[in-house]
Structure formats: C-alpha cells, structure tokens
Amino acid sequence: MSHSEPDSGTDNKSPQMETLFSTVLHIYEPGDEGYQQKSPQQETATPQGDEVDRVVVPEQVIRSTETPVAKTPESQKVVLSTESPAAKRLGINQLIPKSLAVASRPKNRHHTTVVTFPVGLENTSSDSRSRHSAQGPDVSWDDYDSDGDGLAFRRNRRNKSYRAAVTSLDIEAMTAGTASATTLKRVDETRESSPGPASGHRRKRTLGRKRNQRGSFKDATPRLYQEIRERGLHSTNQDEMLEDFVVVEPPAQDQGIVMKSYKQAHLTWSQLPQVKESGILSTITPQERKRQEAIFEIITSEHSYLHSLGILVRHFKNNAELKNTMTTTEHHHLFSNISVIHTVSQRFFKDLENRHNDQLLIRDISDIVQNHAAHHFEPYIVYCSNETFQQRTLQKLLNDNSAFKETLKNIETSGECGGLPMLSFLILPMQRVTRLPLLLDTICQKTQAQTAEYFAAVWALKAMSKLVTECNDGARRMERTEQMYTIQKQMDFGKIKPFPLVSASRWLKKRGELAVSSEELSIWKAFTTRSYYLFLFNDVLIVTKKKSEESFVVLDYATLDKVEVEFGKDAEGQASSPSKNNSSYLSFKLRMTKNSEGKLEQISLVADSRVDRARWVIALKEQKQDKVVTCTDGLPQYEVTKTYMPKEPDELGLRQAELVIVLQKEEEWCYGERMRDGESGWFPASCATEITNPTAVEDNVQRMKRLRKETNV
Amino acid sequence: MSFVPGKPVTAVVQKIEIQKLRQGDNLILGFSIGGGIDQDPGQNPFSEDKSDKGIYVTRITPGGPAEVADLRVGDKIMQVNGWDMTVVTHDQARKKLTKKKEEVVRLLITRKSLEEAVKHSKGCHPRQ
C-alpha cells in the first residue's frame, strides 16, 4: 500500500505545494531498508498525506550525509522529503539505482534539508547547495523569496520552483516549530508534466523531465529570436538532418550520472531527454516524428520570440532615461502597443506550453493556434499598421535627437540585448507573424491527409494567413494615405486644371527626376526646362517642375491609359560607346495621347542610368500588362540574405530568408516578385542570392501554391 | 471588375468553349483555378481588386485543351455552362468544372485586356 499512495496531498496547506507525486517514484521495494519503518509511520506522521514512498530520513542521517536509507526507527514521525525522489530529481543526476546511489544523494538531499529543518542544519545545507545547484550560481535564496508563487510559470526557474515551494514549506515548518510539523509535503517537481503515456521507467523519466523538461528548451538564456532561423522554414534539408539524427541513439538509461548541458543550440524534439527515455521514438513513424518536430519548433521559437520581446519591453520601452529624451507622442509612435503584443504572446506561449507538458506526443496544436489567431492576435494588425510611423519616428530621432541616440547606444551595448540594435527588436512582431504561416504549413505537410488533425491544421493555417494579409493591408493603407496627403500638399497646380489627388484608391508608384533629352532643348534652350520631376501614381502620371524639396509645380498630367512609352531611337545602339555626351541611349519617349488639355503631347526624357530607365519603363508599362504575367515557373528564385528597406515607392521591402522570383535584372538592381504575397518591385541584387538547388526551387513553388489554394481541373 | 454589393456586375466577357480531354478515367480541362468566397482574396496575384473573391485561372497546362481554346492565365471565370462563378466557394467551382457527364464546358471569362480593347475601340470611334 505504501507503494502506491493515491494523491492525498490535496489537503496540503499550501496551494503551492505540488503534490502530484503519486506513485511515480517507486524507488523503494519491499525489501529496501527502511521501507518497513516507513509504512506504519507514514500514516501517523503525515497528516498531509505525503506520498513519499521513501523512508523519511531523520535528522541524524542527513547530517551524516550518508545513505539516506538509514534505519532510524525512532524519528520516523518526521517525514522528510530529503529522501524523496523529488529531492533526488532535483539534482543533476538521473535517478540511479540504489546501489549506485550513495555518491549522488547527498547533493540532492541537502537542498531539501535546509528547508525542512528549522535551524540546525542550515550550515550543512549551504555547502551542499552550491554543489547541488545545477543551474549555477545564479540560484540564491533570495531568488526563492522573491519568487512569490513557487509555481510561477517562470522561464529558467521551473526547476527551481520546487525549491521555492519548499521554501514556503520551510516557513510553515518554522512556524509550526516542531520537527514533526515539518512533514514535508514532498514537492514533486514533475507537477507540471503528466507522467506521460507508456513508459515503464517512470522514475527515470520523471527525473529526466524535471531536470530536462524545463531546462531543455527553456535555457537560462534562450536565444534571441533574431538569431534563429527556424528549421521549419527550410523545406528540403530539414528532413535529411532529422533522418540520420534519430536512428542512432540507443536509449541510454540510467547508467551512472549523466550530466547534460542543456544550452544546446537548437534542441529538437527528438533530442529532448524525456522523449528519448520514453522510447516512443521507436514506435512512431518518421513522418509523425517530423510532425512533432515541427510542432516543437513552433513552441521553441515562440519561447525565443517571447524572450526577445521581453527584452524590448523591459529594456527599451520601460527605460525611463530613454523616455525622457523624447516626447510622449514620439514614444507612443515608436513603441506602439508592443506591451499588448508581449502579453498576447505570453498567453499564446502559455497555452502551447501547457499542451507540451500535458502530452509528450502532441496530438495537435492547431486548435490553440486557430483560437489565438482568430481572436487574440488583433494587436498585431495595429502594430503592423503603425510600422511606417514607427520607422519614421525612429529615423527622425536618430537624426535629430542626440540625447536619444546616446541613450539608445548605451542600452544597446549592454549585455542583455546581445548587441543588436533596437530596430531589430522593433520589427520582431512583423517577422514572427509572417513566419508563423510557414511553420504551420510545415505541420500541414507532415500531417496525414484527410485526418481530423489535417483539417484542423489547414484551418489554423488559413486563420493565420488571413491575419498576415490584414497586417499587410493595414500597413500598406496607412503608408499610402499618408503619402498622398504629403504629396497633395506639395503640389501646386498653377495654370493647369487641378484635379483631386487624394483618393482611397490611389497611391504613388514612383517618383523621380528625369532630364529632358538634349535634342529637344536645342531650339528652345533658353526657355524650356532642363528636367522634369515625374510622379507616377497607379492611375495617373503627373509631370512637374521641381521648385524646391517640398514644392512642385504641375506642368502636365495624364491618366495612365493615355500614356505610352517607347525607348529612344538609339535603343538599338546601346552597345555603342558611352562616351556620347548626349547619352541618348538612356532616353525614352513619353507620349501622352490625352493630357490635361486633351491634346497630344510628347516628351523625350533621359534617365541617369540604364537601371533608372528600366525602372521607369517598367513602372510606366505596368499598367498595360495586366499583371497577369508570367507564369512564374522557370524563373530564377532568389533567397534574401539581407533585409532591405524600400526607399522608393517602386522598391520592394524584403526580409531576411524571404523568397523572391526575379523577373528582370539590370546592373545591380533586380526586379522581382515577393513570393509571400505577389508584390513586385526593385531591390538591390546584393541582397539576395540565387537558389540553385532545383528541388528547393520546386518545393518553394509548391509551398507558395499551397498557401494560395489552387485546384487542377 | 470591382464588385459593389447589391449592384449588378457588368463586364466585358469572352466566350470560350473547351473540349475536355480524356485521360484514363478522368476528363481534364488542362488548367488550374484559384479563388472562391471561402479563400483569401489577398493572395490572388491576378485580381485588380484585392477583395475580389472570384474564380481565376492560375495555371494553364501547355498543350492542353484550355490552351488550345485560348484561355489565359489570369482570366476570371464568370460562368461555366450557365452556372455563375462569381460568388461560389472554391469547391463548388471545381465541381461545376469537373462534371463527369459533360464533355464540353462553355466559359464566360473576363480579363482586363478585353476591357481595354473595348474602351479603346470606343474611344477611337466615338460614333460607335
């Protein structure tokens, strides 16, 4: 009966006591020493119904730091958790068979000893504490005290919460004043995690789990999200990597003390100790394993993202010094609702983690994702829409406000931020929200089709994609509206018949200065202008003369369907020497069949370079082409290596690890289409490299197609 | 081609007749469709109005019946054999196109270039 006590720990006083130890720690066999002693006393000595299967180690034994299984019948009433598997588990050792136990136990034991015994033993415990503390010196009693609720869902502290819980027990013990009252509620560190399914080696697993589960992917310092490139984003190589990884490892059971460093770079699900120990790797199919990996990756990446967000909120947003260097409006524009996003992410992660703890082999996280994407992620839309304001405010502050710049530099160079600039933190939500659909898609791929999980995954993916679109739309709308207002203010129509510029469906596509071809100037040199400044909107072209940086006089305009463009007549002779000083090979003609006065007008313009000309021509012609385009199959795919912020309206913003299909290349600029949403624009060729692996190319195409549903008929 | 709820939609359409090709047990048309009222319209690279949830042609199999019949990528399908395609789900659209009993589908499609062409011809010949 002592073997399997039901969890009567529910009547323990402190809610913080995790009393789920149940029968997991089945360490002592009937033949064990001390076992007999325990049973009779157990009932009497533990009003709280301690589940300890083990013998309670009386004072003397502990002090002697010997095998805890001492036969000390006299003080059986004191039930100490020192012998509890919990204590053992706390150590860096695995739970080892009794025969080997001697060396390791003392370490664990002392830790709890301190707590349970009101005075006396504290000195002993303190030495062992340092020995014992696996997480290094950062654990201190102060931490425990401050850790108000021992069960606080803290990163890095999970395996210490046991101690915190024990601490609170200690207080009770103290107040109770008697040794007997210090019946330790054996704190079961594995409270959060269910014992899990099929495993015979419960104790090992729980040991592993306690130590490892929390420590495994929640390292003391999770990596910053900026540095992670989720494996789920790679379509091809991931599988091979996993393939050869898993097969090899034989479950290394409790052979002696195993010290693992859990600060691994990229812990995968298969590498989790509890997974290895439970042996399910051999029972699941490879596809299922990959699916689990993908799910796990979402969880770990969310963890890392949360960590980085936390840094942003704590170190940048809440920094009083920084706040003082700017106005409240600026502060608001700069940080927007990042705190709300932080909270949202915390909730999301919490749900994910709960699921991870409940089930070793996770059935599905799609419901969690769907729920959050549909109902809780609205702040992302707000944040993304605010992106332009944010960028602009940051730019302005960096340029004009030296106090801000100084303070920011100080914060950035402090260790916490990993030396990364604040900008990289600010764009985290955008990065995260665009990566999530891709990660979800990976799960969809690995889920067996036509099962309930598959449909759930597809729904989740849709919900997330919808969110991303809304974010994109929001951002774009804000940007355009603002731009239109600015331009409207700068335009002076002069003698030309004005027309309302600001409209919900109009945005600027390109603007720039173009010189007038010298041929035309020959006669009217004195009177005509040397250069025009063109504004190309999505439906109208305005030709102006620039008076100053902020003001333009409109000379002419035409709707785009009335505009035609053709290359200058020397287009064929481009190969000829560039020394021609009229550089007519860079010219192109702009013909307006119906301008502001209803007449035919023609201008011959010269661009600065071939790239420039190509850009103008493409921009002007784009209307004609229907955008139907290209079957983009067969065109080269490029992967973005460096984030690129668009500086002009016809440029394409690119984030690292994105994919683009290149339609045209001109000197060091490329004109391409973003795979994630089909937007096209120019970007420097140096930001991207070509993907040459044909499998990868095909996979990417397929993936994009899945993200936009398409059926063959 | 934007759609105002409640108002009739007008468009310049072209009739395209496609003979299905037998491939084993199936009758195929040789193109792919995307879109639908249950899909995300923002992902559609062909639509002018990003809230257009109509059915669009996303791919044409080279040499297939659709290509032969002059269907083009980016065309929006308005009707199939008399059935409306502007307000249907993706799956409904697929079903209308893949009826086993029908060997021919008559589509009404619209594309921007058709509109342009008509406008242009109207513009140049105002008497028309």
Automatic annotation (TrEMBL), chain A:
Bias (Basic residues) ranges: 200-213
Region of interest called Disordered, as start-end residue ranges on this chain: 30-77, 119-145, 182-220
CDD domains xref list: PH_ephexin (cd01221), RhoGEF (cd00160), SH3_ARHGEF16_26 (cd11938)
Ranges for domain DH: 290-474
A Pfam family per the record: SH3_1
Recorded GO MF terms: guanyl-nucleotide exchange factor activity
Coiled-coil spans in chain: none
Listed Gene3D superfamilies: Dbl homology (DH) domain, Pleckstrin-homology domain (PH domain)/Phosphotyrosine-binding domain (PTB), SH3 Domains
Keywords of this entry: Guanine-nucleotide releasing factor, SH3 domain
Location of the PH domain: 507-625
Biased composition (Polar residues): 36-47, 62-77
InterPro entries (alphabetical): ARHGEF16/ARHGEF26_SH3, DBL_dom_sf, DH_dom, Ephexin-like, PH-like_dom_sf, PH_domain, PH_ephexin, SH3-like_dom_sf
Domain SH3: residue ranges: 633-693
Record protein name field: Rho guanine nucleotide exchange factor (GEF) 16
UniProt source species: Fundulus heteroclitus (Killifish)
Automatic annotation (TrEMBL), chain B:
Primary subcellular site in the record, as a coarse category: membrane
Protein name (Swiss-Prot/TrEMBL): Tax1-binding protein 3
Sequence segments annotated as region (Disordered): 38-58
Annotated keywords: Acetylation, Cell membrane, Cytoplasm, Membrane, Nucleus, Phosphoprotein, Wnt signaling pathway
GO function terms (MF aspect): protein kinase binding
Residues in PDZ domain copies: 15-112
Biological processes annotated in GO: cell-cell adhesion; establishment or maintenance of epithelial cell apical/basal polarity; neurotransmitter receptor transport postsynaptic membrane to endosome; neurotransmitter receptor transport, endosome to postsynaptic membrane; receptor clustering; regulation of signal transduction; Wnt signaling pathway
Subcellular location: Cell membrane; Cytoplasm; Nucleus
Organism this protein belongs to: Fundulus heteroclitus (Killifish)
Coiled coil: none
Topological type in the membrane: Peripheral membrane protein
UniProt-listed Pfam families: PDZ
InterPro entries: PDZ, PDZ_sf, Synaptic_Scaffolding_LAP-MAGUK
Cellular-component GO terms for this entry: adherens junction; basolateral plasma membrane; cytoplasm; nucleus; postsynaptic density; postsynaptic membrane
Classification via CDD domains: PDZ_TAX1BP3-like
